[in-house]
Every structure is written in structure tokens, then in C-alpha cells.
Automatic annotation (TrEMBL), chains A, B:
A Pfam family recorded for this sequence: TetR_N
Organism of derivation: Nocardioides luti
The organism's place on the tree of life at top rank: Bacteria
This protein's name: TetR/AcrR family transcriptional regulator
Residue ranges annotated for the HTH tetR-type domain, each copy included: 19-79
Ranges annotated as spanning the membrane: none
């Protein structure tokens, strides 16, 4: 629906300054999401901060989730990329999750924006973005779709392993992790991840 | 031996400016270790950069390992802290390693300098320090003492999990990891870590 409204507005050429408007909205969104978290940020607040009408935010960016992903400037939409992980059921989900994860991070196009985001974790706002982005939008839906018991706890364990892989393979560049093929990497971590997903908890 | 030399020099009071000299050596050491890595840094180069005689570096800081640890400003000497991990043999080593790790990181005194060091990983020099500090001085000796096959590979897998715990529990503050007791945390990760130490590799 917002797409239709947007299309009409664009055709009428009502806002020739659209690129600036988009940038202003994205800047405001990123700032607010970092400061107040996903839950504490409304589309209305983003609009007010960018000095535009709330309808325009919906018009350009769709839902709040869409705006959040756009503000993070990541190239991969986790809502579609991770569908195959949940669809196959919990058996083998660890291996499938690792497969998607390594594919995304091994691809420079998608890695660079994620790395920029990750570098922000040493600032308080960046921490919020990682919590909301990685835990809430990436892993949370997988845990829910798989119907895990203690999903929050299990996905936090999974997240800690995936983040550790990011740090060693893509940030600190530790061998032999850097030179391992994607398949080797997946095979090395799949049993541990699978145990976090459906193994016994202490 | 360097301790004896140091003691004599200190008693003779030859260098009233000692605190500044120490600080200059530490600053030079930290800079060189970050730029050239542990292997690429000599005691002589540190001395030259600090504008002092190489003997003075040995006098104040002992061995190159001692100087490295002093430059990192960590409060815990991994060479003694980790002795119990290796001494017990590979059985249960994952749990013992986690125990020491969580004890050190849960203690604010030892955590804060480590956190400061960890925050540096987003800069190239910081990456070198983490590789040399964590992999070479902390985990490397444990892998060697346990007599592991493919020790580098196994310790890199272990490191990726430990670093992920640092990020989620101590940097990004993800629940329920933050609220879990040290014992719960150890129990949650011990099987995965133990598998990295002595399980099958792909």
C-alpha cells in the first residue's frame, strides 16, 4: 500500500528534493534507532526528527522493519535470506544457518556494510543496533519459526558463536579460519550450533 | 636475572625519572607491538623508540613476554592463570578453560583493561594485539601443553567462541547471557568447547 502511495507521489513529482529527503529520514532513523532502540523508536519520531510528514516516511520506506533495515544499510534482507533455515525444521538447522551466514559474510558486497555496522559495537548506540538488528531481526525470527523451547537463550548462545566467527574470520583475521573454505567452516561449527539449537540446556 | 640487575639499579637511584622512563618504554612497546606484531618487535627497537638503552628495558620489564603483557596493561598473567587448565589433561579442559575465562571477565578489576584492549579490535593495530595477546599468549600455550593435534585450528575455534561470549555478555550486553551465573555460563558452553578441543575435525 505504501508502495502505491509512493508511486503516485513520485509520478506527480511532488518532491524534487527526494534524494535529500530520503537521506534525512535515513539519518534520523539511524540516530534514533541507535539512541532509543528499535522498540523505543516510532515512525512518527523519525519523521519529526527529519522534519517531514510521517506519511512520507511510510511512503519511502514502507514498514518500520523496512526502515530499520534501510537505516542499517545492509544489502541482505534477513527476512528472506533466512527463510530456508526455518523451513527445513530444527534438524540440520545449525548447518543451514551457518551456510547462509557464511555466504553473506564471504560476499564482499554484503560484508562491507555489515562490517561497518559491527565496528560500531564499541559505541553504546552500536550495541543497540547489533542487539536489535542481529538478535531481533535475524536470529529471533529463526528461533520463533523453529518453535524452539527457551528460544531467547538458545539464540543468544547461537549469536555468541556467530559473532565470534565474524570477529576472528572477518575482523581480526585469524588463521586458519581466514583460509578455510565456507564448507569447512560450516562443517567445523555445525555440531556446536546444532547443540545450542536443540541440545540439552544446563 | 633482570630482576637482580633492576634491583641494584633501583637501589643506586641512578634514574630518578624512572616513572617517566617506564611510561615511555610502555608507550613505545604498545605502539610497536600494535604496528609490527609480537614477532616483528625487538626489545632493542622498543628501547630505541623510547630513547633508552636496551638493558634498561630488560631491567624494568624482564622478558619480551613480560613487556608485552605490561604493554597490554592487563591485570592477569595468563601464564599462571591458565596453568590449571593444561595440568588436568584434555578431559574437562573445556570446562576448566571456561571457568578461568569467566572468573577473569566477571571480575571488574581484570575486565576493564581487557575491555579497553578489545575495543581496539576495530583498528588494525588492535587486531594484531588480539592475535598476539589472545591467540599466542593465552590459548597457544594451552593447546601446546594439552598436546592437541591440529592445535592452531582447534584453538582458533575455541577462540572464536570465547570472543563471541566477550562480545555478547560483556560488550553488547545481550540477555539472558548477562544475567546468567558464571556456573550456568560455563555449563552452557563447556560441551561445545570440549568438542573443539578433542572432537572430530571435518
Amino acid at each position: 500500500m505504501s508502495g502505491a502511495v509512493g508511486g503516485a507521489a513520485a509520478r506527480r513529482g511532488r518532491r524534487p528534493g527526494a534524494p535529500d529527503t530520503r537521506a534525512a529520514i535515513l539519518g534520523a532513523a539511524r540516530e534514533l534507532f541507535a539512541a532509543s532502540g528499535y522498540a523505543g523508536t516510532t515512525m512518527r519520531a523519525v519523521a519529526a526528527s527529519a522534519g517531514v510528514d510521517a506519511a512520507l516516511v511510510h511512503h519511502y520506506f514502507g514498514t518500520k522493519d523496512d526502515l530499520f533495515l534501510a537505516a542499517l544499510q545492509v544489502r541482505v534482507d534477513p527476512r528472506t535470506a533466512l527463510l530456508p533455515v526455518a523451513e527445513g525444521g530444527v534438524g540440520g538447522a545449525g548447518e543451514r544457518l551457518l551456510g547462509v551466514f557464511v555466504d553473506v559474510w564471504d560476499d564482499e558486497e554484503s560484508r562491507l556494510p555489515l562490517l561497518a555496522l559491527f565496528r560500531g559495537i564499541t559505541e553504546p548506540g552500536g550495541q543497540q543496533l547489533v542487539r536489535d538488528g542481529f538478535l531481533r531481526m535475524v536470529l529471533g525470527p529463526v528461533g520463533a519459526a523453529l518453535g524452539l523451547d527457551h528460544a531467547d537463550r538458545r539464540m543468544a548462545l547461537v549469536a555468541s558463536q556467530l559473532v565470534g566467527i565474524v570477529v576472528l574470520r572477518y575482523v581480526v583475521l585469524v588463521e586458519p579460519l581466514v583460509s578455510m573454505s565456507g564448507d569447512e567452516l560450516v562443517a567445523s561449527y555445525a555440531p556446536a550450533l546444532q547443540r545450542f539449537l536443540d541440545g540439552p540446556l544446563p
